[in-house]
Amino acid sequence: MTKDNISRSARQLIFNILRFDPHLKGDRPRMERFEIEESSGMTLFIALNDIRRNHDASLKFDFVCRAGICGSCAMVINGKPGLACHTLTASLDTEITLAPLPVFELIGDLSVYTGNWMRGLNERLETWIHEQEEHDFTRIEEPMEPDLADEIYELDRCIECGCCIAGCGTVQMREEFIGAVGLNKIARYQLDPRDKRSDEDYYDLIGDEDGVFGCMTLLGCEDVCPKNLPLQSKIAYLRRKMLKIGLKSPKKICF
Ligand code: SF4
Ligand code: SF4
Ligand code: FES
């Protein structure tokens, strides 16, 4: 084999995957090893399908869009939360470790149920536009400044993948902590002029240790957010705003 052929020959990838099905009686968590040949442009989505097709049809993992939009393929990749459909194997070493996201309910292997956690969060933070008057569907929509609409859209790009929750130290200590995903949602509604909630209303939602004052600002969330949301600046902004309200209110501020 020539030097050129050797450099172009496909890499052998070794996957160490955390396997466990909590619904299977007697099953125990264990690492399982699979070896596959890397192909050009291979993502972890393709690699996992290869493993399922050629090695173990029982391997559980989630995918819907394969385009970084649905958020369902989030998992812990070599110790860091990320989207499997957006991760090229070429960007990783030949030995790859995969585990399910912590915090969320485990369905089995790499598949977790983020839906109920996110639904609970959305209900708790009331993540919808709060109007004062009854909505009139015949009324023409009010225009919005394009720059403001862009700013809101930027925060609306959250895909609820759960990576920021899995990478957050506070969530590990405080089960009720809303995390960067929750704080980002409040920042989004607080920007929206159609939402008539006051800063005091938002304080009631996030002005405690399960909200903005629980955040340790170590910014693991921003490091792992696959949509590159400006979590750092939004959390800092909310913290300043809520602190001002807290200092005016008789409520005790917790740090
Ligand atoms: S900055 Fe706050 S929300 Fe983000 S990971 Fe750290 S504690 Fe969690
Ligand atoms: S803020 Fe980023 S990491 Fe967190 S759920 Fe939304 S998209 Fe995922
Ligand atoms: S499959 Fe939808 S984000 Fe990866």
What is the element string, with H for helices and E for strands? HEEHEEEEEHHHHHHHH
Cα(first) to Cα(last) distance is: 64 Å
Number of strands: 7
* Overall 3D form: elongated
The major pleated sheet works out as:
5 strands, mixed
Strand content: 5-15%
Q: Which ligands occur here?
A: iron/sulfur cluster, FE2/S2 (inorganic) cluster
Largest beta sheet: strand ordering = 2-1-5-3-4
- The average pLDDT value, as a whole number, equals 93
- Helices, by number, come to 10
- Poorly predicted regions are 1-6
Secondary structure: helix percent? 25-40%
Helix-strand category: alpha+beta
Radius of gyration (CA) equals 22 Å
What does this structure look like?
There is one protein chain. About 35% of the residues lie in helices and about 15% in strands. It contains 10 helices and 7 strands. The strands form 2 sheets. A 5-stranded mixed sheet has the order 2-1-5-3-4. It has about 260 residues and is α+β, with helices and mostly antiparallel strands. The chain binds iron/sulfur cluster (2 copies) and FE2/S2 (inorganic) cluster. The site of one iron/sulfur cluster (SF4) has 13 residues, from α5 and α7.
Name the descriptors.
binds iron/sulfur cluster, alpha+beta, about 260 residues, elongated, single chain, 10 helices
Topology:
Elements: H1 3-8, E1 12-19, E2 30-37, H2 44-54, E3 74-77, E4 80-83, E5 95-99, E6 105-108, E7 111-113, H3 115-125, H4 146-156, H5 163-166, H6 169-173, H7 179-191, H8 199-206, H9 220-224, H10 231-248
Parallel strand pairs: 1-5
Antiparallel strand pairs: 1-2, 3-4, 3-5, 6-7
Bound molecules: iron/sulfur cluster (2 copies) and FE2/S2 (inorganic) cluster (FES).
FE2/S2 (inorganic) cluster binds next to loops.
